[in-house]
Amino acid sequence: MDLNFTSEEREFQNEVRSFLSGNLPEYIAAAVRANHGLTKDMMDKWHTILNKRGWLATVWPKEFGGPGWSPVQKYIFEEECCRAYAPRIVPFGTNMLGPVLQKFGSRAQRDEYLPRILSGEDWWCQGYSEPGAGSDLASLKTRAVLEGDEYVVNGQKTWTTLGQHANKIFCLVRTSTEGKPQEGISFLLVDLNTLGIEMRPIRLIEGGYEVNEVFFTNVRVPAKNLVGQENKGWTIAKYLLSHERTGIAGVGFSMQALEEVKAISAMIKRGAKRLIDDPLFAARLALIEIDLEAMKITNLRMLFRAQEQGAPGPETSILKIKGSVINQELKDLARRALGPLASPFPGHVNDGNLLFGPPDTAFNAACYFNNRKTSIFGGSNEIQRNILVKTILEL
Amino acid sequence: MDFHLTEDRRMLSDTLNRYLGDQYGLEHRNSVAYEAPYYDSVKWQELAELGVFAALATEKDGGFGGAGGDISVVFEALGKALVCEPVLPVLMASRLLSAAGKDQSGLLDGSIKYGFALSEPDAPYDISDITTSADAFHKVTGRKSAVYGAHLADRILVAARREGQINLYEVMKTDAEIISYGMIDGGGAGEVLLDKSSADLILQNAAAAVKDAMNAGVVALCSEAIGAMETAYEMTVDYLKQRKQFGRTIGSFQVLQHRAVDMLTEIEQARSITIKAAAELGGPDASRFAAMAKNMIGRAGRQIAEEAIQLHGGIAMTWEYGVSHYAKRIIMIDHQLGDTDYHLARIMSDLSASQVDKGSV
Ligand SMILES: Cc1cc2nc3c(=O)[nH]c(=O)nc-3n(C[C@H](O)[C@H](O)[C@H](O)COP(=O)(O)OP(=O)(O)OC[C@H]3O[C@@H](n4cnc5c(N)ncnc54)[C@H](O)[C@@H]3O)c2cc1C
What is the DSSP code (8-state) at residue B194? Predict the structure, then answer.
C-alpha cells in the first residue's frame, strides 16, 4: 500500500497547476469564490478553454478525443480545479450524453453530436424527472408516439437544470405501456427550438434560478433522434447514472469549502477572540476535517477498485451519502460563522463599500440553503441507502 | 400544577391565530417579506389594534401582559404565520423603556417604531464585547449590525459603552445613518452607523435591563420557532400522506415515518424548554433557562428545517412551496440573540462553576 502519488502523478499535478494558473481567467475564479451564480458567458468561456487544451471531456475514451486519463489523474484534475476555483463544467453534454452516445448511439448520432458537445455549439440539459416521477423515475409518463418518421411527444419534465441556457434536451419518454414500467422507456434527443416546447423557470429556496419546467405539446421529433432501441431506454439511463458516479463524493469541493471556513473563522471575531479559537466552533470544524480526511481515502479506495473492476460498484452510494453530508455541514459552518451578518438577502448589500463580514461571504446563507439539494438530487440519500441495502447487505 | 393557558391568553391566542389565518396567508406574506419596505403598514396597525403589542407590556407600562406566557402566545402565532413585520423590537423596546421609566404609549399603539441596536460586527451575541461608545455629551459612535426593524424605525435604542459600563441611549433615525436591507428569510433590517451621533441617555448602567430584554427576546424567538417548526412539521406529515412514489404513499416507508416521529419528539422537547424559560423570565434564573431554550431551539430548528426539506424531496427546494420559507426562518433564528454554541457555552460555564469547590485541581 502506498498513499503517495507516483512521480508521474505528481508531475501531472504540476502540469495541471501551471495550466490553471496560466489559463483560468481571474474574473471567473472570483465569481466561483464568491459563490455567486456564474453567467452563461463564463461557463461557455471555461468550456472553450478546457476544450482547446483537450481537457474538457476527461471521461471520454481516447478514441473519441478524451485525454485517456486514469481515475487517479481525473481525481487530481478535479482536486486542482477546485483548489484554483475553476467552475464545475456543465456535465449534461460532456459527462452524461457523450458517454451514452459513445456506447449506445448510432454512427450518425456520434458524428453529429459529439463534436458539437466539445465545441459548445450544443448545450444539453437532462429531461428525466417529472412532477410524478422523482425517486420512482420508471413511472414517468411523458409519451412519445411514432407517427411515420416522427415521434409526437406530449408531457412534462421538471427540475431541468440550466435548461434556460440549453438548446437541446435528452429525455426519457414512454413509448410503451405494456409490461413492467422500465420496459416501455426510450431515450430521445430533442431540439428545444421545436414547436410546442415551453420552458418555465422555477425559483429556488434562496431566490436563485437554475432549474426549469419543460412542457411538451405535440412536439414532433425525428425518429432518427432515438438513441439505441425503442423501449430500451432504461438500460441507457442506468448506464448514465453509473457514469455520474465518478466525482460523486465532491471531495474537491469540500476541500475548497473547508479552506473557506477556516479562513472565514480566522477573520471573524467574537470580542477580542477569533472565532476559530472558540472551542465549540473549532470542535465542529475539526470533526468535519476528520470526516473529510477519511472521505478522501474512501473516495480513492473506491476509485481504485473501480479502476481494477472496470466499473464503479454499488458501494459508491456511500460516496454520495457521506460526501453530500460533509459538504452540507461545511456550508452550515460557513453560514453559522457569520452570525447576524449572514442575514442580508443575497445581493442586496453588494454595492457601497460597507463590508458585511469577510470578503466573498455575501452568499453563504444562500449557499447553505441551496446546497440542501445535494442530498435530494441524483438519487436521494434515502434511495442511495436502499441501493446499499439491496446490493451489499442483501436484506 | 396546570399546563393550561389562562383564559386571557387562550382568547388572545385564538383571536390572533384567527386573524392571521384569515388575513395573513403565505402568498400575502411573501409578497411583502421580500420587497422593500419589507412590511405592510396596514397589517402593522391591525396587529396594534388587536392588542398584540399591548400584550407584550405590563399593566404598569400601559399594556395588559408582559409575562413570559404572554410573549410565548403572541410569538408562536406570529411564527405559525411567518409574520415578517418586526414585532421583536416592540417587545425588547418595551422592556427597556420600562426599565428607563419612559412613556411607551406610542410604541404600544404602533405609531412609533423602535429598533434595538445591540449586535456589532465583532460583538454579534455578547454584550461584554460591545465597543460602540458614548462621550460625556452623549454623542454615540460605532456600528450596530443586523438591527431588526432598523429599516423602519423612528427611534433606535442603542446599547453603548461609557466609562466601562453599558448605558442605553435613544437615537432619532435622523441622527444615524441607517443602511437598510431585506433579509434572506424575509423582513428587513439595517446597519446603524453612528458617528458622534446625538442621543438621549435614557438609562445608565443598563446591563441588567439589556439582559432582561434579551431574555425576553429569546423567549419570543423560541416561541416563534415553535410556531414555525410545528407548521413545517404538519406540512411534512401531510405531504407524506399524499405524495406517491413506487405505487404507494411515501409515508408508508418506515424510514420516513421514523424521521417524522423524531421531528415531533424534538418539537415537544423544544416546547417544554421554552415553557420553562418563559416561566423563569424576570426571575434570578432567567438567563440560564433562556440559554437552555435557545440552544435547544438551535439544534431542533436545524433538524426540523433540514428534515422538512429532505422528506419532501425537490419540491421543498422551491420558492413557490411554503416549506422553504419556514425552513429559512427557522434556520435564521439561530443567528439572532445568540446561536446554539453561544448559549451552550453559557450552560457549560454554569456546570463548571457548580463544581468549583469539588474534585482535584
Ligand atoms: C436543484 C435540483 C436540480 C435537479 N436537476 C435535475 C435535472 O437536471 N434533471 C432531472 O431530470 N432531474 C433533476 N432533479 C430532480 C431530482 O433528481 C429529484 O428531485 C429526485 O430524484 C427526487 O425526486 P422528488 O423530488 O420527486 O422526490 P420524491 O421522489 O417524491 O421523494 C420524496 C421523499 O421520499 C423519499 N423516498 C422516495 N422513495 C423512497 C423509498 N423507496 N424509500 C425511502 N424513501 C423514499 C425521498 O428520499 C425523499 O425524501 C433536480 C432536483 C433538484 C432539487
Answer: E
Best CA proximity match to B187, nearest among B144, B219, B152, B228: B152
Residue B142 near residue B133 (C-beta atoms within 8 A) = yes
**For residue A245, is pLDDT > 80?**
no
Residue B238 φ then ψ, to 5°: -55, -45
* B122 chain-A contacts, CB cut-off 8 A: 269-271
Name the H helices within chain B: 7-23, 26-33, 41-50, 68-81, 88-99, 105-108, 207-242, 254-280, 286-312, 323-332, 340-354
Sequence-ordered list of residues with C-beta below 8 angstroms from that of A186, at least 6 positions apart, any chain: A144, A172, A173, A174, A175, A226, A228, A229, A230, A231, A232, A233
**Mutate which of B241, B250, B323 for ligand 1 pocket (most atoms within 8 A of beta carbon):** B250
Mean per-residue pLDDT for B300-326?
98
The verdict on A201 and A271 lying in the same domain is: no
Q: What is the pLDDT of residue A357?
A: 84
Kindly state whether residue A330 falls inside one of the protein's structural domains: yes
How many independent structural domains does chain B possess? 3
Out of B158, B187, B205, a domain closes at B205
Structural domain of A256 = 250-391
Residue with cell 462553576: B353
Nearest ligand 1 atom, CA A162: 8
Say if residue A75's pLDDT is above 90.
no
- B37 preceded by cis ω (within 30°)? yes
CA distances for B258 relative to A279, B226, B254, B267, angstroms: 33, 20, 6, 14
Nearest by Cα to B116 from A352, A340, A353: A340
Phi/psi at A16 (5° precision): -65, -45
pTM of the entire predicted model: 0.97
Mean pLDDT, residues A50-55: 97
Domain assignment of residue B61, yes or no: yes
Q: Are A102 and A38 in contact (CB under 8 A)?
A: no
Three-class DSSP labels, B105-137: HHHHCCCCCEEEECCECCECCCHHHCCCEECCC
B130 and B78 co-located in one domain: no
Q: How far, in whole angstroms, is CA A387 from its chain's centroid?
A: 20
Looking at the structure, tell me whether residues A221 and A346 fall in a common domain. no
Selecting from A136, A205, A341 the residue whose C-beta is nearest the C-beta of B146 gives A341
What ipTM was predicted for this assembly?
0.97
Q: In this predicted structure, what is the pLDDT of residue A313?
A: 85
Q: Residue count of chain A, please give it.
A: 395
Report the pocket of ligand 1 as residue ranges, CB < 6 Å. A 126, 128-129, 134-135, 159-161, 211, 373, 376-378, 380, 382-383, 386; B 243, 245-246, 250, 253, 255-256, 310-311, 313-314, 317
A108-140 pLDDT, tens per residue?
Answer: 999 999 999 999 999 999 999 999 999 999 999
| Secondary structure (DSSP) of A150-213 | EEEEEEEEE--TTGGG-SEEEEEEE---SSSGGGGEEEEEEETTSTTEEEEEEEBTTS-EEEEE
Helix (H, G, I), strand (E, B) or coil at A120: coil
Torsional class of B57: left (φ above 0), alpha (ψ -120 to 50), beta (otherwise) = beta
- Pair B230, B324 in one domain: yes
Q: What is the CA radius of gyration of chain B?
A: 21
pLDDT in tens, B195-254: 999 999 999 999 999 999 999 999 999 999 999 999 999 999 999 999 999 999 999 999
Residue of A nearest to B313 (CA): A376
Q: Is A129 within 8 Å of A170 (Cβ atoms)? A: no
Tell me the average pLDDT across B264-291: 98
A205 C-alpha to ligand 1 centroid (Å):
16
Give the rounded percent of residues in chain B with a pLDDT score beyond 70.
99
pLDDT at B361 over 70: no
DSSP per position, B6-32: PHHHHHHHHHHHHHHHHH--HHHHHHH
Q: Is residue B358 part of a domain?
A: no
